[in-house]
Amino acid sequence: MSTAFHPAQYDTQLNEKRERLQTLLAPFDAPPPEVFESARGHFRLRAEFRLWYEAGVPYYAMFEQGDKRSPILIEQLPIASRQINALMMPLLEACKADPILGRKLFQVEFLTTLSGQALITLCYHRPLDDSWDAPAKTLAEQLGVQLIGRSRGQKRVLQTDHVVETLQVAGRQWHYQQIEGGFTQPNGEVNQHMLGWALDAAGENNDDLLELYCGNGNFTLPLSTRFRRVLATELAKSSVRAAQENLRINGVENVTLVRLASEEVTQALTGVRPFRRLQGIDLTGFEFGTVFVDPPRAGLDPATLKLVKGYRRVLYISCNPETLAENLQELTKTHRVVRCALFDQFPYTHHMESGVLLERR
């Protein structure tokens, strides 16, 4: 996480990102990107701090990338949510005052939501036992948060290990269970923009959607309203469980969720091999007109690229514009870019999220 915070430079930095994305997409005749800005401050819903001890007194510390010996001691973090900032010092003071809470505490992780919930994980260099629970429960009640204790091989959960986020997309509320330690989009407001753009780009459809890398169902839930049926795939077990719960709590019934890697999806759809995890699922009953992908930073592997080229439309969300451009070299042999977008998930850094909609030529 960057410690840089220069709001006066935000517009300049955002324009540089827009120009960089346009340059990367220029060889593919992409239209100018739709740009979705971030709030200038208090946009980050997650934060992780190491504790740095001076004369036995703990301080929140962050480090520049590649430097673990020169701490930047902080009491507030302007890029973090207001809720995180409000919790930081009361939590630290409580841990300083109670040796059971504070002894060998080395890291604090905050997870907050736009809906006002908060979960804090305290990480220790010592085993935790029952004596930790009572003061931790008192602190959790005082702060109005969920509190978890972690040490090597241990996870002590007082009540629940998740929060529930509520996002507004195209006039509808969606509820997401976000599990401690699981992946969530850090910039909630920009995530809402991403979901809204994907929904608009998808349009109304009478056929089905194939979604790869669905995670906890972040995009799956709203996109389910624009297609007859959805086949969503994800490999990580924890993400699959979260996605199943999110489908349940939102009453979404037209999504079939399967735990498969992208290369396994290719094998299943092309009939190369059967999978027991697909038992009872009739893949031939789907009529996919659109494929949605949100791959890791490495982008799409060659087999998945070959698979997605077989569909009429490709909706691609990318966390790495360089690998997106590499993938487009292949995808634009059969498809053309009709829409693109820049989502400023990570202000004051060089990172950006982008999206493209491709249609078959």
TrEMBL record:
Binding site for S-adenosyl-L-methionine: 185, 213, 218, 234, 294
UniProt-listed InterPro entries: MeTrfase_TrmA_AS, MeTrfase_TrmA_CS, SAM-dependent_MTases_sf, TrmA_MeTrfase, U5_MeTrfase_fam
UniProt catalytic activity: uridine(54) in tRNA + S-adenosyl-L-methionine = 5-methyluridine(54) in tRNA + S-adenosyl-L-homocysteine + H(+); uridine(341) in tmRNA + S-adenosyl-L-methionine = 5-methyluridine(341) in tmRNA + S-adenosyl-L-homocysteine + H(+)
Active site: 319, 353
A GO cellular component entry from the record: cytosol
Gene Ontology process terms (BP): tRNA methylation
UniProt-recorded name of the protein: tRNA/tmRNA (uracil-C(5))-methyltransferase
Organism listed in the record: Halopseudomonas oceani
Name of the gene encoding the protein in the UniProt record: trmA
